[in-house]
Amino acid sequence: MGLFSKLKNLVSNKKEEQTLEVYDSGLEKTRKSFVSKLNVLGHTFTTVNEEYYEELENLLIMADIGVNTVVKFMDRLRKRVKDEHITNTSSLNEIIIDELFIIYVNNAYLSDKINFAEEGPTVLLFVGVNGVGKTTTIGKLAQKFKNEGKKVMLIAGDTFRAGATEQLKEWADKTQSIFYGKEEADPASVVFDGLKKAQEENVDIVLIDTAGRLQNKVNLMNELDKINRVIAKFIPEAPHETLLVIDATTGQNGISQAIAFKEITNITGIVLTKLDGTAKGGIVLAIKEEVNIPVKYIGLGEGVDDLETFDIEKYIYGLFKDLL
Ligand SMILES: Nc1nc2c(ncn2[C@@H]2O[C@H](COP(=O)(O)OP(=O)(O)O)[C@@H](O)[C@H]2O)c(=O)[nH]1
Ligand SMILES: [Mg+2]
Asked: Which of 10, 229, 241, 291 is the most exposed place for a label (fewest CB within 10 A)?
């Protein structure tokens, strides 16, 4: 079944309705901007010509899909238009959606799944620069795991920013999670004491917050190394995931952060926050192409429920449903 008809089926599936709604409203800004421009383009140019291609290229770049991705996409699109003898722009929308999807799944180990420990606590470490939404994401995830019946613990490894420990504590209270934090202490020592408590309390999943000072790459690298060594002392195969949090509203800046973090530690997944606040939701595709780390979760608002496991089909639906 082609993607297009698959997406149409999604729409008629009641069970999927609720999560679709979240994608739907979370990606509204991107969709409104992108799809309406695409529609205008289709009306302005009825036949596919060089000018149409140029305008389309601009449009994709404006949606933050990333220049390299766009160039590859345009090559593939041109080839398909030629091979399939398409002359009319009205028949192109379906192909555009299809090709954007192909970019994402191409040579991808498409795992948006979290690598849970078979035994003992699963440890997820959160990294990323200040303000991207690490602490909020941890709070949302705590709720999600709680809803799944897991015993959750939060550790406040950001001892740098004033109020960071208290902020995480509030999320712990709100989600009825176990908490460990100690202000003005060394992050690695907080993680050490926290993990000790996690083992004593027999928790299922530990979420560790960190500070994200990227001003000094070497310092940050040393600090993360130290935290990783402490974690591995308790559980050799942990952290089970190191999730880099990126703010979607920062566009290409977010991509640069991903590239920088990839150099200093082993990132296993990305959480893309604030997709609700940007018209540049195309960044998901750019991350795939330029960083090649799977997006595992997306943040679509400030509330505790505004987090979704990333699903490429729902994402594409959220972007293009007005074209379906
Ligand atoms: N609109 C929106 N705001 C978010 C989202 N995630 C986080 N925020 C907001 O971003 C700000 C910074 O979040 P915080 O978790 O403190 O970032 P941290 O410094 O990385 O820990 C807060 O005001 C959050 O409410 C999201 O998905 N959507
Ligand atoms: Mg924080």
From this structure: 229
pTM of the model: 0.82
Query: What is the rounded distance in angstroms from the CA atom of residue 273 to the CA atom of residue 108?
Result: 22
pLDDT tens for 104-141 read 666 454 455 788 888 889 999 999 999 999 999 999 99
- Cα–Cα distances in angstroms (integers) from residue 63 to residues 1, 227, 245, 249, 323, in the given order: 28, 37, 20, 11, 16
Q: Which residues contact 320 (CB under 8 A, 6 or more apart)?
A: 7, 31, 35, 93, 97
**Whether the Cβ atoms of residue 271 and residue 243 lie closer than 8 Å to each other:** yes
Instruction: Give dist(CA 48, CA 41) in Å, integer.
Output: 10
Which atom number of ligand 1 is nearest to the Cα of residue 138?
A: 15
Ligand positioned closest to the Cα atom of 166: 2
The CB of 321 under 6 Å from ligand 1? The reply is no
Ligand 2 centre distance from Cα of residue 121 (Å): 23
- 274 ligand 1 Cβ < 6 A: yes
274: CA distance to ligand 1 center in Å?
7
Q: Which amino acid is at 185?
A: A
Beta partners for residue 210, in sequence order: 157
Counting ligands in written order, which one lies closest to the CA of residue 134? 1
Cβ-based burial of 111 (10 A; exposed 0-12, middle 13-18, buried ≥19): exposed
> In this predicted model, which residue has the larger pLDDT, 179 or 5?
179
**Is the shortest distance between the CB of 251 and ligand 1 below 6 Å?**
no
CA of 137 to the centre of ligand 2 (A): 9
Half-sphere exposure of 125 (CA within 13 A, CB side): 30
DSSP at 88? B
**Contact (Cβ atoms closer than 8 angstroms) between residue 317 and residue 308:** no
* Count helices and strands in the chain by DSSP H and E runs: 13, 8
Instruction: Locate 263 and state its tokens.
Output: 């150099």
